[in-house]
Amino acid sequence: MLKPILKFGVLTGLAIAAAKLLEVSYLTDHLSIKAYISIVGVAFLALGVYLGLKHRRQKVLVTYKEVEAIPGVGTPALHDDLLTGRELEVLRHIGQGRSNQEIADTLFVSLNTIKTHTNNIYGKLGVRRRTQALEKARQLKLL
User: Fold this and answer.
1) Which of 40, 116, 118, 125 could cross-link with 136 by S-S, CB 3.0 to 4.6 Å?
2) Is 97 a member of any domain?
């Protein structure tokens, strides 16, 4: 960041030296101090815009790759009591293609309760989506 500032300083110095060498007295006689302040302000505005565009933060692209889990490594233990009775009931409703709101209405609980059960199911089965949960449940013979 220091390099562009030094370049700008050198260019400004060269411009002032060129003006003195050419003895541009016309500008000094006909421009007021407000005009000089405006010119300097515009120059610094241009410098700020230039530095802002050049050194702005770059967006980082993050990608995720799904990998097949190795059985027995980082997967939940295969027990009959892996899911609670209510979680199994919610999983069965998911298997029937019902939405969270439909499941909540059927079981007479709130939507947030169903979301909690669904997240618990995902965590216990080690999955991220409904389809993965259903596939994993079928593999474990829970459905």
Assistant:
1) 125
2) yes
96-100-104 Cα angle (round to 5): 100
Q: Clarify whether residues 50 and 89 are in a common domain.
A: no
Assign residue 122 the CATH number of its domain.
1.10.10.10
pLDDT tens per residue across span 113-131: 999 999 999 998 889 999 9
Q: Give the pLDDT confidence score for residue 77 in this predicted structure.
A: 47
Range of the domain at 36: 2-54
Whether 72 is covered by a domain: the verdict is no
Cα-Cα-Cα-Cα dihedral sign, residues 15, 18, 22, 23: positive
Give the mean pLDDT per block of 10 residues along the chain (143 residues). 78 76 58 75 88 74 68 50 86 91 91 91 90 89 81
Phi, psi of 56 (to 5 degrees): -65, 155
Residue at 80 is within a domain: no
The whole-number pLDDT of residue 93 equals 92
Token code pair at residue 142: 């829970």
The C-alpha angle 134, 139, 141, rounded to 5 degrees, equals 90
In angstroms, the CA 14 to CA 118 distance is 69
How many domains does the chain contain in total? 2
- pTM comes to 0.45
